[in-house]
Amino acid sequence: MEMLFLLILCFFGTAILSSGQVGPWYSTPRKTVTLTSNRGHVFREEGVWNYTTMLLREDIGVLILGARETIFALDLTNITHKKAMVKWEVTPDNKKMCSYKGKNLETECQNYIRILHKMPDGRMYVCGTYAFSPTCDYMSYTEGNLILESKQHKGKGKCPFDPFQRYASEFVDGELYSATSMNFLGSEPVIMRSSNKTIRTDYYSSWLSDPKFIGMKYVAEGKENPEGDDDKIYLFFSETAMEYDSYNKMDVSRVARVCKGDMGGQRTLQKKWTSFLKAQLDCPVLQTKLPYIIQDVFLFCPGSWTTCVFYGIFTPQMDVLEYSAVCTYSIQSIREVFSEGRFKTLYNDESVFNKWVTYNGDVPEPRPGACINNDAREKRIFTSSDLPDKTLQFVREKPLMDEAVKPSPQQPLLVKKGTAFTRIVVASTTALDGSSHQVMFIGTASGSVLKAVNYDGKMVIIEEVQLFKPSEPVKILRLSNTTVSLRILLRLIFSSLKLHQVFIGSKLFLNLCAVPGTDPWSH
Fold first, then answer.
1. Is 228 exposed, middle or buried (0-12, 13-18, 19+ CB in 10 A)?
2. HSE of 192 in the Cβ direction (CA atoms, 13 Å)?
3. Beta partners for 139?
4. Which DSSP helix (H) or strand (E) runs through 492?
5. Looking at per-residue confidence, does 70 or 39 come out higher?
6. Which one of 256, 258, 404, 453 is at 20 to 30 Å from 331 when CA atoms are compared?
7. Whole-number Å distance between alpha carbons of 388 and 105
8. pTM score, two decimals?
9. Where is average pLDDT lowest: 180-194, 364-378, 490-504, 508-522?
10. How far is it, in rounded angstroms, from Cα 272 to Cα 201?
11. How far apart are CA 366 and CA 369, in angstroms?
12. Helix count (H) and strand count (E) of the chain?
């Protein structure tokens, strides 16, 4: 019988950072802690499978956990305490229809909760795969009860059809931004904003070429912006490359962005993004020949939006496990590529494959892909529907930038051999001597969490916590500010580390506690 286990553990962080002279290329943990070396308490929930997503509701003190046909509300300060639960099951008719279309009745024709977002009014927006017929609803937590409002509506383009397909989403000012597939076969990728006026990517493969969506982040760049620029939604993904001479399929990592105020074009790009641009993300690891592929991203903003940094984790393609890496990208370096860089254009020649090459021609004004800013307003262009067709036609045909976004510094922040990184979160903390340090928590495919500290410009892995055996890959990491904890999700395990750390999967929830010492993350 499948069960959900919640295990609370504590560990000691005793690394002395003053001796940290480890470079990025040979990072190894200074201390390894296993499950058996910690005290634990177990929470069991019968009949629960496949934890898939979670939402921290620190405003009401609960953690919302989505699983297969089940949604939980757990006490944020005591995750062994289940405060509420609600079932959202697929109807027999929907299951039969899913099965008739060739999907597995027991594993695929279920409702996997994939999307959980807080709404401005305090309710939650929830979507599930619903037997390959994605469906969304509204949910509230009232007087200790989770309540689905039974206002179900189609989730096509918002939520994946496939319960095992990666996707990305953000909820901004009451509107859902999503990156997923639009059809049953998973062959029509889309980046979409669902609102009264839905906006989406165009259908061309030059926009999205067999993508694997990784993460979506909102940056309020319009706040106190001297250029009068707009807020942005950034999307991180990998896709099939069209800029290399290769007969074999090769993937590259990308960052794309759209403007929050984009309303589509008047004639060209009607109901389509006029601001969609993408660029390659470079994470150079040793002398590897193939580009490394992004697996997760975390947005860290110690101050205003101008200080924001994206932390990305990368692994090799072709399933060759050698090194995993962490690369960082400043918001300013990404903005510079999109606002000042050259474009690529598709080279069409019957003797060769279609290939992206540098575009050396004229670029129209206003600049293709730019948000509406002060310069545009001076030209009496107040919305995207005012943009001229020549600008829109250019960005429709040439959405890829010529220059790749380089990491800062010009090499990975951390590299580890023999371990596949899966997820990352980052925080800033103050050590006992008053110095400030950035702390990274990195989930791995072997079910462990690495704790690494940036000390005098060098990353030192000070601890590794091996969670469970047999191992399950870490699927989600979340930091809780109010409880100072890390939440961790695995496919079959849900866990929490107290400093905090939390793991989620469908069997187990773990909570590990750091004790005050020389480890800067110990208060």
1. middle
2. 19
3. 124, 148
4. none
5. 70
6. 453
7. 51
8. 0.89
9. 508-522
10. 6
11. 9
12. 4, 35
Distances (CA, A) of 69 to 3, 52, 479: 14, 11, 25
End-to-end CA distance of the chain: 39
Do the Cβ atoms of 169 and 178 come closer than 8 Å?
Answer: yes
Q: What is the pLDDT of residue 44?
A: 55
Q: What letter does residue 506 receive in the DSSP assignment?
A: S
CA distance 311 to 316: 17
Structure tokens at 77: 């300060």
Cross-strand pairs, 272: 200
Using DSSP's 3-state secondary structure scheme, residue 92 falls into helix
Task: Give mean pLDDT, residues 63-70.
Answer: 93
The b/e string for 392-418 (b: 16+ C-beta within 10 A; e otherwise) is bbbbbebbbbbbbbbbeeebbbbbbee
For the record, the structure tokens of 355 come out as 């290939």
Residue 327's CB: how many other CB atoms inside 10 A? 28
Output DSSP code: residue 170: E
pLDDT in tens, 279-333: 999 999 987 888 999 999 999 999 999 999 999 999 998 766 679 999 999 999 9
Domain boundaries, the chain: 3-52+163-511, 53-162
Token output for 343: 């474009």
Return the DSSP state at 513: B
Residue 236: pLDDT band with limits 50, 70, 90:
very high
pLDDT range class, residue 521, cuts 50, 70, 90 = very low
Q: What dihedral do alpha carbons 379, 381, 382, 387 form, nearest 10°? A: -160
State in words which class domain 3-52+163-511 has.
mainly beta
Q: Is residue 411 helix, strand or coil? A: coil
Q: How confident is the model at residue 350 (pLDDT cuts 50, 70, 90)?
A: low
Before 516, cis peptide (omega within 30)? no
> pLDDT band at residue 438, thresholds of 50, 70 and 90?
confident
User: Which amino acid is present at 438?
Assistant: Q
Residue 361, token pair as written in the block: 């021609």
For residue 31, the Cα-to-chain-centroid distance in whole angstroms is: 28
The Cα 321–Cα 418 span in angstroms is 6
pLDDT one-digit tens code per residue, 366-411: 999 999 999 999 999 999 999 999 999 999 999 999 999 999 988 9
Nearest to 238 by CA among 315, 299, 294: 294
